[in-house]
Design a protein that fits this description.
The complex is a heterodimer of chains A (264) and B (280). Chain A has 264 residues and is mostly helical. Chain A has helices spanning 6-35, 38-42, 44-54, 59-83, 90-128, 131-137, 142-181, 185-195, 198-226, 231-260. Chain A is globular, with a radius of gyration of 22 Å. The termini of chain A are far apart. Chain B has eleven helices and ten strands. Chain B has helices spanning 45-52, 75-82, 100-111, 116-129, 145-156, 175-192, 203-209, 227-231, 236-242, 259-262, 276-279; strands spanning 5-16, 19-30, 34-38, 60-65, 68-69, 85-88, 163-167, 195-200, 212-217, 220-225. In chain B, helix 3 (100-111) packs parallel to helix 5. Chain B is globular, with a radius of gyration of 23 Å. The chains are: A mainly alpha (264), B alpha/beta (280).
Amino acid sequence: MPHRSLPTIRSIGASAIDNVMRLGYATRFIGLTIAHSGTSFARPGLIIRELYFTGVLSLIIILVSGLFVGMVLGLQGYQTLTTYGSESALGVLVALSLVRELGPVVAALLFASRAGSAMTAEIGLMKATEQLSAMEMMAVDPIARVVAPRFWAGVISMPLLAAMFSAMGIFGGYIVGVVLIGVDEGSFWSQMQSAVDVREDVVNGVIKSFVFGVAITWISLFEGYDAPPTAEGVSGATTRTVVTSSLAILGLDFILTSFMFRGI
Amino acid sequence: MASEFLIEIKDVNFAYGRRPILTGINMTIPRGKVVAIMGISGSGKTTLLRLIGGVLKPTSGEIWVDGECTSALDQAGIYRLRRRMGMLFQFGALFTDLSVFDNVAFQMREHTDLPESMIRDLVMMKLHAVGLRGAHKLMPAELSGGMARRVALARAIALDPLIMMYDEPFTGLDPISLGVIANLVRQLNDTLGTTSLVVTHDVQEALNVVDYVYYLADGKMKTHGTPEALRADKDPLVHQFVYGEAEGPVAYQYPGKDYGEELKLGKRCEASPPGGRHAA
């Protein structure tokens, strides 16, 4: 007679196999997307249209959040730095926090919930209403026509949004620190200028947000494309997009940071 | 090469894994005719359409479409073949992010280098053919079910296909729209010189407009013939289907436990009182 724990072990095994298979599908999916990107680059109009939906429409949430995050950094940073009498370093603190970490990470989290979920829902619903099948029957490859333009639009807009988030954040820090609290304006900017390194800080931040952009759009598009064609299926896929993307962002951030800032 | 039959299906079997969906299907579809594939839901009609469209490959057997064997074609070959096919989906499957005009223009823009002015003329002609020229600026969400189906029809005939396939074109339409679509199927077939394949279970509408009927049951070809022959068919299964009778070889009750046993008639006293779950 089989042991009592057999069904449990069996279900763990089954879900492990399922997950490995899904990972395989997802890898094949991203491979196909990149291989079928020719159409998108031959017709930039397709990418530009998606840039509007993923990038431009995410601007408001990115800019407003950036401003507030910067203002909070200004307040908190001043509180701490003033204990050591070094409030003139406020600019450095705000800029480095944003450019290295908060800009890429928070912008990516916002991007995943604003644009990623929308992408999943849209593609999932296109699948559920047979729009993707109709496209295939019209001899148009949905990966080339629907998925690839969205992928590149996401990959392009993520670093730009992160940069705008950081710029807005620095502006917020300036308003709180210099305009409202009265930190010396000259030292705020000049210390920031001398302490922030282009290669070490700015470029690394851009690399991070590029990697996050790839991860978020990959997850969002795959979840949408793979969603069961029902209301339940699409809603589940949208939730999974936000959860998986957020975890991926935070996990990848740790890995990237540990490689980038080893010597510091 | 121009054989009399546009589509030939020879001994086709198809199975999802181990579950057989279609067994031993033989069919020929002559050029220029409107042919219906009928059968109750789940009899494998739509699967047959997907096989002809090359979305699925048969487990065994051959499907010849316009002189090409679909199972021998690669992806590019299938796509080339599909440019000669138009398909109307059950609920239209219009692209919801594009206007009526852009929906109809979609294939022209994807597959041809026609100038925009010519595309405009062609789109207007196709929309005129389905009586919706005036609706070209609307979005799919603003259309009624019948209108959406007609726009989808205009989109399907955009590149003058050789074969038109209809997947349940009459489902969920009011009687007027239903008649309109049924007549359009016939009219477009005759004026455009296409060959049409209609998958449906709306018997009466379909029998009025088609030339020939194939009747599928449980994945097998049960019978085929002209609409008159089908109406006169003595087979109880076909008779039940054509006249829509509730009882016959297709049982009304989904198989289950014995009714009496299900209601626990034998042991009444053990049954909980009405609403007992909440009361407890």
